[in-house]
Write a structure and sequence with these properties.
Elements (H helix, E strand, L loop, with lengths): L6 H4 L9 H5 L12 H13 L6 H5 L8 H24 L11 E8 L3 E19 L2 E20 L2 E11 L6 E12 L2 E20 L2 E19 L2 E8 L6 H13 L2 H14 L5
Antiparallel strand pairs: 1-8, 2-7, 3-6, 4-5
């Protein structure tokens, strides 16, 4: 006959926080950040299910009458696979916000058709500029210059020339002096100057012509786009539609909070896996 073990026997270290909920809180259970493992171990094993007999799966995982850590991890993974989705959704209802005496809450949203406005703007600048420059410059110089020589110049020459005369005999190379010839000139030469040179005339330097600079062109700036306008409003309705009295809703609120997540949901689910359903 297979020996029956009680749950508090196989979880012999539950008072030292080395039991079931210590391992569960290491996994992704929804309450792990809100409730520590110690009160849950004490409530489940010490007060609720510790004296219940172990289910066959627990007995088969025992080692010398005690569950080793690896076996506890295996049982926790089984519980998580079967019940954690249900635990997560029901635990979320504990933090749901609502008005206990309102059974009607509705929001209507309405949006009018969009109004579209298309706009276009064009700025055009036309530039046509002509710059004309006509230079006509004349420089005139008139020269009237006179230069000349006026007066009397007198020259008195006094000149005497003497010439030796000689005769050369036959077959002789030497001259025989025969005499001297003297020619003398004297008198006065007078020259009168009355000369005037005059330069007249006009020198003209001129530049004529036309310089034209022309600039033409068109500068265009264009803006275009679309504006869309939407109009909408929200209508919120809440309260009691009249089928349930406020007293009835408050009574339902009282009954709701008699429900306890761990005692009514979690602990019974664990019992189904870890304990025999006989007491």
């Amino acid at each position: 006959m297979t020996q029956l073990y009680k749950l508090n026997e196989v979880f012999s270290t539950w008072q030292a926080n080395l039991a079931l909920f210590d391992r569960l809180n290491l996994l992704d259970v929804p309450w792990k950040d809100d409730i520590g493992s110690m009160p849950l171990n004490y409530e489940y094993i010490g007060n609720r299910s510790g004296d219940k007999y172990c289910a066959p799966i627990v007995t088969k995982l025992l080692l010398n009458g005690v569950l080793p850590t690896t076996s506890i991890n295996t049982l926790c993974n089984i519980l998580l696979a079967i019940y954690n989705e249900n635990w997560t959704k029901q635990y979320a209802t504990l933090s749901a916000e609502y008005n206990p005496i309102e059974n009607y809450s509705m929001t209507e949203a309405m949006t009018n058709d969009d109004t579209t406005i298309t706009f276009g703007k064009t700025n055009t600048l036309t530039r046509n500029t002509t710059d004309t420059e006509t230079p006509n410059t004349t420089e005139t110089r008139t020269d009237n210059l006179s230069h000349g020589k006026t007066g009397t110049e007198t020259r008195t020459p006094l000149t005497t020339n003497t010439t030796d005369n000689g005769i050369t005999g036959f077959n002789s190379t030497d001259d025989v002096h025969t005499g001297t010839t003297t020619v003398s000139a004297s008198g006065t030469d007078t020259m009168t100057h009355n000369t005037t040179d005059t330069d007249t005339g006009t020198v003209t330097t001129g530049v004529t012509g036309t310089v034209t600079t022309t600039g033409t062109g068109t500068l265009t700036n264009s803006d275009s786009g679309t504006e869309t306008h939407s109009h909408g409003y929200n209508l919120t309705r809440s309260g009691n539609i009249g089928v349930t009295t406020s007293q009835q809703m408050l009574q339902s609120e009282h009954e709701l909070w008699k429900w306890n997540f761990f005692n009514d949901v979690v602990f019974p689910d664990i019992d189904r896996v870890l304990t025999l359903m006989i007491y």
